[in-house]
Amino acid sequence: MDNSTSTYPDRNSSDGQTLATMPENSLEVQAVTISLSLLICGVGIAGNVMVVLVVIRSKHMMTATNCYLVSLAMADLTVLLAAGLPNISEVVASWIYGYAGCVCITYLQYLGINVSSCSITAFTTERYIAICHSIKAQFICTVSRAKKIIACVWIFTSLYCIMWFFLVDTNETIYSNGVVVRCGYRVSRNLYMPIYFLDFTLFYVVPLVVASVLYGLIARILFRDPLPSNLSEQRLSVHQGRRHSSVKVSCRANSAASSRKQVTKMLAVVVVLFALLWMPYRTLVVVNSFMDPPYLNTWFLLFCRMCIYTNSAVNPIIYNAMSQKFRAAFKRLCVCKRRSDQSRASKSTVSVYYSVIKDSSSESSMKKHGIQTADKNIIRVFYP
C-alpha cells in the first residue's frame, strides 16, 4: 500500500513529482519495516487462508454471517499481498515492479480496502436483521442471498476502483548517485483530494455510522429486552406441564441467546478494531489535505502502515479467541492436515511381510480328494 502514493501521501509533493530531497531509509527503519511486515503478513495470510478453508470445507460453518467473513478474509488477503509484501522490497530499493505493477498493485490495494469496508457493513446489517427481525431473517438472511450480495459488493468495488488505472504512474527522480523510481501520481496531487474525501466518506465514515447505530439496536435487544424465545419457552412450559420439557426448552433458549451474544460481540470487536486501526491513516490524509507542507514523519508513516496491515491480519485471531465454532474448526483443519501428512508418509514407507504357513488340515483335506499337495503351501500376507 505504501508503494502507491495515492494511498500513502508520503511519496509525493504537492505538484505530483517525487521529492528530490527525500532521504533514504535508515538501516533502523529498514530493519523494523521488514521484520514487522514479514511477521504481520505471514500471520495474516495464514490466518485468512484458514478462515476461507474452514468455511468452504465445513457444511455446518456455511452460514450467511460466515460468507461475509470469507469475503472479508479475501479482501484482507488482497491488502496483505498487494500492500504488505511490496513494502518489503521497496523499503530497501526503488520501485522494481514497473508501470504495470504500479497500476495493478494500486488497484488491488484499493479493491481490498473497499471490499473489507463493504463486507463489514454487510455482516453488521445481517446481524441486525437476524436479531432484531428474526421472522424476516428466515427469508432474508440466507446463504444464497449472502453470496449474491457479496458478488455485488466485489463487482461494485471493482468498477469503482478502475479509476486508479488512469490516476497513477511511475515517477523518476535523479539523485547524485543514480535514478530512483517511485509509484506516484499522474497529475497534481491537489486533484486527488475529492477522491480521498469520497473514499473517506464511503468506506470509513458511513460503515462506522451504520455499525454504531445497528449495534446499538442489537445491544438493546440482546442485553436489555427479553429475547422472543423466552415467550415461546413460557408458553410451551404451560401447555406441556412437564418440568423436564421446560428445562430442555430453557437450556435451548439459553444456548441460543449465548450463541447470539458471542457472535455479536465478536463482530463488534472486528468493527471496533477496524475503526481504531484505520484512524491514524485516515486522519493523516485529512490533515495533510490542509497542511503545506504535509506531515511526513517517517516513524508515524511506518506506524500507519503497520496499523493497516494489522487490521488485515488480526481478524482470524479474533475468530479463534471469541468463537467456539471457529476455534473447533481451526483445530479440525490442523488435525486433518497432520493426519494427511502422516498418512502420506506411512504410505511411502509401508512394509509388507510375507509368511509361508503350511496348513496341515487343508493339506489332509486336499489329499483326501486326490489333490497333490507336494510343495504347495498356503501363502498368507500380513500387513502391519
UniProtKB/TrEMBL annotation:
- State the family named in the UniProt similarity comment for this chain: Belongs to the G-protein coupled receptor 1 family.
What domain of life does the native source organism fall in? Eukaryota
Record function comment: Receptor for thyrotropin-releasing hormone (TRH). Upon ligand binding, this G-protein-coupled receptor triggers activation of the phosphatidylinositol (IP3)-calcium-protein kinase C (PKC) pathway.
PANTHER family, alphabetized = THYROTROPIN-RELEASING HORMONE RECEPTOR
Q: What is this protein called?
A: Thyrotropin-releasing hormone receptor
Instruction: Give the organism, scientific name.
Output: Sinocyclocheilus anshuiensis
Q: Does the keyword NAD apply?
A: no
Q: Which residues form the G-protein coupled receptors family 1 profile domain?
A: 47-319
Keywords for the protein's UniProt record, in alphabetical order:
G-protein coupled receptor, Membrane, Receptor, Transducer, Transmembrane, Transmembrane helix
What GO CC terms are in its UniProt record? membrane
Q: Which BP terms from GO are recorded?
A: phospholipase C-activating G protein-coupled receptor signaling pathway
Major localization listed first in the record, in broad terms: membrane
Lineage, broadest ranks: Eukaryota, Metazoa, Chordata, Craniata, Vertebrata
What PROSITE patterns does the entry give?
Answer: G_PROTEIN_RECEP_F1_1, G_PROTEIN_RECEP_F1_2
Instruction: Spell out where the chain crosses the membrane.
Output: 31-56, 68-88, 94-113, 149-167, 195-218, 262-279, 299-322
Task: Output one GO MF annotation.
Answer: thyrotropin-releasing hormone receptor activity
Q: Where in the cell is it found?
A: Membrane
